[in-house]
Write a structure and sequence with these properties.
The chain is mainly β. The protein is built from one helix and 33 strands.
Length: 323
């Protein structure tokens, strides 16, 4: 499926194409975000992309960070491979400013869990749900314990919250049922880690990469969770050890994009095929990124904002698109 879409249509070229070599596919650029952001969360409902919380430049010193509760919304009509109008608008802010939230979508709503109250520290147990129709956040029962940098995904109508960090990386695996508003516990990760990715595919969860306490201890682990047996199984590791990357399902492949390390950020764009248990290399990012997410609408993957350097001293206002 990925091989069928290696060219960018002329309309996308109009917003600035940046075709990459050395891997399958191509990147292009879209409409700028109103505010540079990183360590944000990203979700999509219908044809709208939501960039939630994270760091934003504070005051006259761009390197001075603050958490922001602002939720910027991309409201394009997605037609083919375009962003439509490409306009951004503000929506209801988070109940409070947080970074490193874990988010997912279910039933046309966005669920947000945990996060940090300060730059990459002071974890919280916050949980809330956003309804795009009413443009409002509603509090949910808090997490059983505070943690940030959690990986979140929906499987069989329930929300799985895997890994993350309190003062150290944890392997905690909570399951939230929106029908009962209750948490249960499931088998923990074999190795506790944070800043990892989590994707549901074929009735299983796949936990990708992440770090043990800091980016000097990145991992390449891939673990598959089977809810029938309540067990994790090791799969083929990522070609690179990474954390803080965007992880998303795209054309039956799990893409791991960008990431963070002590020496800078990754441009890596690698795809895992759960059916063959094998990795392949895709076109790299035009510039290294970490600390954001990616969503897929139609045939296009969207990656907004993120940090071009390791740590939180710099954010971007770019919107990158991959086909």
């Amino acid at each position: 499926m990925l091989g069928a879409a290696t060219a960018i249509c002329s309309a996308v070229l109009a917003v600035g194409a940046m075709a990459q070599t050395g891997g399958l596919g191509a990147w292009s650029s879209g409409a700028q975000l109103p505010t540079p952001r990183s360590e944000d969360a990203v979700a999509a409902v219908g044809n709208t992309i939501y960039v939630i919380g994270g760091y934003a430049p504070a005051g006259p010193h761009p390197a001075a960070l603050d958490s922001t509760g602002a939720v910027d919304v991309d409201e394009p009509l997605v037609q083919g491979f375009n962003l439509g109008t490409g306009r951004w608008s503000d929506r209801a802010p988070l109940p409070r400013g947080l970074n490193h939230l874990g988010v997912t979508t279910l039933g046309g709503k966005i669920y947000a869990f945990g996060g940090f109250d300060q730059q990459n520290r002071d974890p919280v147990a916050d949980a809330s749900v956003f309804d795009p129709e009413s443009d409002a956040w509603t509090a949910l029962p808090p997490l059983p314990a505070p943690r940030g940098a959690i990986a979140v995904a929906v499987l069989n109508g329930k929300i799985h919250l895997v890994g993350g960090r309190d003062t150290h990386s944890v392997g905690t695996h909570d399951v939230f049922d929106p029908a009962t508003n209750r948490y249960t516990t499931a088998a923990p990760l074999p190795v506790g880690r944070d800043h990892l990715g989590l994707v549901a595919f074929g009735g299983k969860l796949y936990a990708i990469g992440g770090r043990i306490d800091d980016f000097d201890h990145n991992t390449s682990y891939v673990d598959a969770y089977d809810p029938v047996t309540n067990r994790w199984t090791a799969r083929t590791p990522m070609p690179s050890q990474r954390s803080g990357m965007a992880v998303v399902l795209f054309h039956d492949r799990i893409l791991a994009i960008g990431g963070e390390r002590g020496g800078g950020t990754f441009t890596n764009n690698e795809a895992y095929d759960p059916q063959t248990n094998a990795w392949s290399v895709l076109a790299p990012l035009p510039q290294g990124r970490h600390g954001t997410g990616a969503v897929v609408i139609g045939d296009t993957l969207y990656l907004p904002a993120g940090a071009p350097v390791n740590g939180g001293s710099k954010q971007t206002d770019t919107l990158l698109m991959f086909r």
